[in-house]
Amino acid sequence: MGERRVAMVTGATRGIGKEIALELAQNGLDIAINYRSMQEGMEDLKKEIEAYGVRCEFVGADVANFEQCENMVKETVEKFGKIDILVNNAGITKDGLIMRMKKEDFEAVIDINLIGTFNVTRNVIPYMIKQKSGRIINVSSVVGVAGNAGQTNYSASKAGIIGFTKSLAKEVASRNILVNAIAPGFIDTDMTKVLSDNVKEGINAQIPLRRMGNPKEVAKVVKFLASEDSSYITGQVINIDGGMVM
Prior knowledge:
about 15% strand
């Protein structure tokens, strides 16, 4: 089984999730990367992670599907022997004003972002309870804290993750399982690269630090929450947003 800790990161083939996987690997953790469909560059990512001298395995599942999550968690435990850290990062957006939002666009975002967080966590928790230790880090958003026009579905899913995090933290603290959430603000990823310079300037004007964050700045907070340095922190939401929401 080895003494290295094992982290499962959902939706980690790109963006913030990929950076989290790389950051944890750099710190000596074996990594299980969840993906929904095979994409270009996944083999390169595996090599990049393994270059840190750790193991990396891909485990497929649509997080919105409970049975697929059950199988994914079993497969991960079979491969690594345990799961010490779970990072629930998988998420989508389908933005639009509520007057025009389709029912299926609301439901799709809730299914992946919120129900997906439940599906994976529900299947990992029994293993963590058995080993009497674990860390769960849920990726919320400042939009879940403060709301944002045109994102009722996304805001609802991310606010739901905050309530889920706090309730679960109370349930499992006695088993030495710590549960926290991070709430990133505007982070420079593929999702924001498509925005025009004018839109980016408008966004930066709302941020006291006058710039977007980068994925590494998010990953470093996850690394802290996954480490022994955060041993007395549970049920918290840490905003990573350059001061946008205070």
